[in-house]
Amino acid sequence: MKSGRREREGPQSKGFAFPDWAYKPESSPGSRQIQLWHFILELLQKEEYQGVIAWQGDYGEFVIKDPDEVARLWGIRKCKPHMNYDKLSRALRYYYNKRILHKTKGKRFTYKFNFSKVVLVNYPILDMANSPFFLAQNHFNGSTGTPDCSPEVRGVG
DNA sequence: ACCGGAAACT
DNA sequence: AGTTTCCGGT
Asked: pLDDT tens digits for A10-27?
């Protein structure tokens, strides 16, 4: 039988799930703040946000059901009170060239992840054996979405 | 709604 | 580098 870890699967998710190691606590080396695509993944992972953003359609495809709310939540996380969908979507558009995302044309508020890129670039799968991802996964899942500007995470020293 | 250049900010 | 802000164009 397969030795891989079981994939996360919500009760009502239609067979779609990320492998556990796709979850990462923070951003890639270089930037300290959470990245937008991490945040999107985070919302997508939680069932309480299925009315706001959810997987839909093809593999890796998701639809933003409530653009204003997603923008609001992103604004809270980044402490940008004036965030809106216009600006958030600009950030998503920068992912096109980076090949992290692309737009599903014709479908409103619908984008699609390029998992091969997202996964391979950000997580050295080959190094999974002794990677901190399995540990990080717990950290990630335990995250309640504390804003990066929160005093809790800001300066302790 | 969606696109992408340009400049500013971190 | 990864956005945030702004905006003219489709």
From this structure: 333 333 445 554 555 444
Distance A55 CA to B9 C1' (A): 33
State residue A116's pLDDT score. Answer: 77
Spacing of A32 CA from B7 C1' in Å: 23
Provide the token pair at A54: 């959810």
- Residue written as token pair 């593999």: A59
Q: How far is CA A46 from CA A7, A8, A121, in A?
A: 15, 11, 24
Distance CA A123, CA A133 (A): 8
Give every strand in the sheet of A110-113, ordered side by side.
A53-55, A61-64, A110-113, A101-103
pTM (predicted TM-score): 0.73
- Give, as ranges, the nucleotides of chain C with any atom within 7 Å of a protein CB: 1-7
The domains of chain A, with CATH numbers, are 36-121 (1.10.10.10)
